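[audit] Reproducing an earlier prediction to check determinism. Same input, same settings, fresh worker. If the tokens differ from the archived copy the diff job will pick it up downstream; this log only records the rerun itself.
[audit] input (212 residues):
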Amino acid sequence: MLSCPRPAGSRLPMLTKAELLVPLVRHRTHEVVVTCMSATRPWGRLSSHDLDFASADSAMGHTADLALGIALAQPSRKVICLNGDGSMLMTLGTLATVVGAGARNLVLFVLENGTYEITGNQPVPGVGQVDFPGLARASGFPRVYSFRRAEEYEAALPGILAGEGPVFVHVETEPGSEGPISRSEREEARYLKTSLAEWSREFRRAITRPMD
């Protein structure tokens, strides 16, 4: 289902982060989940899985690249990437790279909220004009989805996760008010309570364990 770009200032329905993430947590089994920026804290409030990885305090724009690398290194394990619209715009070439690499186990979400949320909600360039699903199709993604309504997204999610990829999922989400990410005991999310280096070691141990 391919949507047209949303006009700036549109009041069309959009998903809340809870409407996006809660069904995903419910359907998640042994998949790796890589989060980016505004999705990092909300996902960490819902999930404390060993295979969660926060890519919010590293090089901005490279979350999808990291997820692709994990997918290629672990071809028997599905990888879900929760990327932002601003981050995706920084590395649009990754879309073609994903397809060229043949990453059949990668599900790439782009959460379009129109802002750089964790740095102060500055507007993303081209907000409402960039056709992310169209870019994914032009890059060769065999399966492309776009959602504005929670019920349509939730009904389609099991098939999205079960099928072969690479898969591109565009979801229009409401802007939030998540601030800058820290790594300390003040954070609620388990994967933010320790340093990036320490969690990377924990994550590596988890991803190399055999799946049940």
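[audit] rerun output stored. Observation attached for the diff report: Residues 150-162 form the longest helix (13 residues).
[audit] end
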